[in-house]
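Figure 2 data, in text form.
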Amino acid sequence: MAQIHEASFGTAQSTDVISFAYPPTPPIDDTSSGEVIVNAEQALEQGARFNGPARELALYIAHGCQHLTGADDSTPALKQQMRRVETRWLDAAAAEGLINPIWPQASSGERS
């Protein structure tokens, strides 16, 4: 993740998610597309401390999708606004049973 971050943004540091929005390609395509790259290893580590790895990974995906639609988190107020939307999405997904464990756990508690 640090290599992608450095190649894309000039900073060699790891991050939880990177989003790339691609412009439409008229006249064939009038829709936008993009790419969301998530740090699954970080989701596993952070999830153990917070709400679980599956929800942490879902949070990264939600955050990346928001960036694809133009959301900005460059200030504390904007970051808080994004987090409110992400929390609402994740709560709705969890209520529908869409956030489930994704890493099998070995009997010793370590990832297999």
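Caption note: Residues 106-112 have pLDDT under 50 and may be disordered.
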